[in-house]
Amino acid sequence: MAEDGTDDTKLIKKEKHKRKHKHKHKHKGKHRQEEGHGNDHAPPPSIPGVNLSLKRVALLLGAYLALGTVCFYLVRDQITGKKTHELLDSMYFCVVTMTTVGYGDLVPETKFAKVLACVFVFLGMFLGGFALSKAADYIVEKEVTMFVKAIQVHEAFDPDQMLSEAAEESDKLKLKFLIVLALIVLHVIAGIVVLIVVEDMSVIDAYYCVCATITTLGYGDKSFTTTGGRVFAVVWILTSTISLAQLFIYLVELWTESRQRQLVDWVLHRKMTVQDIENADLDNDNSVSPAEYVVFKLKEMGLVNDQLIMNVMEGFKDLDVDNSGTLTANDISNLGKLMSRRL
């Protein structure tokens, strides 16, 4: 009998039934359930969600454009250059400033307008850096998710399955890369067509202006000067520069995933040595448990380091209230009681 009066035999049978049920679902191909439908491998709530971060970036972008348009509209008389419509020019100038294209067809003239432009260009660069950091978080989160999967030692450790999932993720990433590449090509074609038809440029000049814009080079000798051209430019400059940045992010991720997959394949299939057994034996009991084997392999793959393992173990010790070396429902219950007493 357990301390709370529950029959141990019933608990064991119940646990076996749960594992058997989970094992059946795994072989039916449901081991990768969609988010929101009970995914056992989903990151815990403590790991920031990428979707939430991207929404935050979109909200910041919208707020930046709205605030910038209003501010530059209020100082429109202090900005000189080729003008079309006051509100449109303000939005156009805000986009050109944020993306650091800086054509020079509209420039601040007074000291106040120049300071305002400096403020918004730094805010735009900060926003761009924040967006790139979210992309970096996405890559890191994928590695953390793999770590979370691996430490669930109640499921079988299947090297071939891990490699198969990695290959599948790589194929998805290649598809994303090709889609963004196609979007870049469409942006280039659309930009050239509009510059030829609306801005009356030659094919070479239009292509030159498109390249200078997408790469945020912005020499300024060629730009959008008509009302129709600037309406198009407000949307086109934003989407084209973001798409190009996304393309480079996917390119870097493809390269790192390729290197990571090669490393994973080598680690999973290389022969274990006596020295490896000694290194993997974390508790020095002259044997390697499945958990120790998983941690050892993750270290070889470069997915975890000693510091991260120590941090996880510290968390385990905090939860192991009775110092038994294992976690039980009683540990969690006792920890809750202990925390409530302290409060």
Automatic annotation (TrEMBL):
Topology with respect to the bilayer: Multi-pass membrane protein
Its keywords, alphabetically, are:
Calcium, Ion channel, Ion transport, Membrane, Transmembrane, Transmembrane helix, Transport
Question: According to its UniProt record, which protein family does this protein belong to?
Answer: Belongs to the two pore domain potassium channel (TC 1.A.1.7) family.
Q: Which Pfam families match?
A: Ion_trans_2
Membrane-spanning segments? 57-75, 112-132, 177-198, 231-252
Q: Where is the EF-hand domain?
A: 307-342
- What SUPFAM superfamilies does the record tag this protein with? EF-hand, Voltage-gated potassium channels
Q: What is this protein called?
A: EF-hand domain-containing protein
Q: Where is this region: Disordered?
A: 1-46
- What Gene Ontology terms describe where this protein resides (cellular component)? plant-type vacuole membrane; plasma membrane
Annotated GO biological processes are: stabilization of membrane potential
Q: Identify the domain of life.
A: Eukaryota
| Annotated localization | Membrane
MF annotations from Gene Ontology: calcium ion binding; outward rectifier potassium channel activity; potassium ion leak channel activity
Show the ranges annotated as biased composition (Basic residues): 13-31
